[in-house]
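dumping the sequnces here before i forget
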Amino acid sequence: KAGVTQTPRYLIKTRGQQVTLSCSPISGHRSVSWYQQTPGQGLQFLFEYFSETQRNKGNFPGRFSGRQFSNSRSEMNVSTLELGDSALYLCASSFLGRTSYEQYFGPGTRLTVT
Amino acid sequence: KNQVEQSPQSLIILEGKNCTLQCNYTVSPFSNLRWYKQDTGRGPVSLTIMTFSENTKSNGRYTATLDADTKQSSLHITASQLSDSASYICVVSAGVQGAQKLVFGQGTRLTINP
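..and the predicted 3d for all of it:
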């Protein structure tokens, strides 16, 4: 069974631009969660989608948004990029939900904002 | 306040030696506890997931323990290998059904030297 895939793996953007990251979960998994990881803050939860609906949301500004498609693939969008958005963005899929079931993480997208 | 604290922050040991990483949590109500291994620039990989009733779980050379009374968990690595160099993250799932959240520790950075 293929694992979680994320594209692109690396991205360089300038301040003020917007970016869209993509995540394909493990086949059969309906829950997709997004995390931001920085050296100083560790892993921080952005949001979770389940069957195309946002189920949970972390404490991030509205510039961070996401969506999930009917095939469970998910996208995350960050608008008006700031230098502080430079981070590793991780996507994780789970069979039914991230809190009760095992999560499987993708390799991440390394975003650098200059 | 729900918190997960890991110690030490970083650890350096020689190849072949054993080590133990600690995780203390103040999370209620407890649902499960997970240990992840994360190689630099990669997504976390699950090592173990333990529920309230489990106090030991092994995955190869990795053995996790859980003391729900003292709210402590440890991850013991036996006969360390160079490939064990990574960050180890403790994650606790808390809350009641339908309103659960994951609380992440900051991780322990383990370096194995030859």
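The interface with chain B takes residues 4, 42-45, 56, 88, 90, 92, 97-100, 102-108, 110 of chain A (CB under 8 Å).
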